[in-house]
């Protein structure tokens, strides 16, 4: 996951995140850690959704993330979120 600062306003930093699958197999049911993600910024819950009491996030509604089709979303918070892969299902061709 690549993160880029796109705006700082009223003590909040807005980030743009791009998740790219560089492998040949798609990955589905992708779950990442996302502590501190529940900020005031509205987000597209089809791309990233809080699960498990807000400590984890489901990416792309669990649908496959494929090569050359990155998932992009934005969020704003006072601290940068360290998204760490927890689990994924690899769909071998």
List the helices and strands and how they pair.
Blueprint: E1 2-9, E2 12-19, E3 26-33, E4 48-51, E5 56-59, E6 71-77, E7 84-91
Antiparallel strand pairs: 1-2, 2-6, 3-5, 3-7, 4-5
Structure, explained:
This protein has a four-stranded antiparallel sheet with strand order 4-5-3-7, with no helix packed on it. A three-stranded antiparallel sheet has the order 1-2-6, with no helix packed on it. The relative contact order is 0.35. The protein starts with a strand and ends with a strand. The mean pLDDT is 90. The protein is built from no helices and seven strands. The protein has strands spanning 2-9, 12-19, 26-33, 48-51, 56-59, 71-77, 84-91. It has one domain: Immunoglobulin-like, CATH 2.60.40. Keywords: Signal.
Could you name the CATH topology?
A: Immunoglobulin-like
Characterize the overall form: globular
Structural class estimated from helices and strands = mainly beta
- What's the level 1 CATH class? Mainly Beta
Cα radius of gyration in angstroms: 13 Å
The first-to-last residue Cα distance is 23 Å
Strand content: over 45%
Q: What is the residue-mean pLDDT, rounded to a whole number?
A: 90
Domain module tally: 1
Runs with pLDDT <50, length 5+?
none
Order of helices and strands: EEEEEEE
Total DSSP helices: 0
Number of strands: 7
Tags for this model:
0% helix; 3-stranded antiparallel β-sheet; 7 strands; 93 residues; globular; mainly beta
Q: What's this entry about, in short?
A:
The chain is 0% helix and 51% strand. The chain has strands spanning 2-9, 12-19, 26-33, 48-51, 56-59, 71-77, 84-91.
């Amino acid at each position: 996951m690549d993160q880029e600062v796109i705006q700082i306003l009223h003590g909040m930093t807005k980030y743009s995140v791009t998740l790219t699958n560089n492998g040949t197999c798609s990955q589905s049911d992708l779950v990442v850690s996302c502590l501190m993600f529940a900020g005031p910024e509205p987000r597209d819950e089809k791309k990233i959704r809080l699960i498990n009491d807000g400590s984890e996030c489901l990416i792309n509604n669990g649908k496959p993330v494929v090569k050359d089709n990155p998932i992009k979303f934005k969020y704003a918070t006072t601290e940068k979120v360290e998204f760490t892969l927890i689990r994924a299902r690899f769909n071998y061709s």
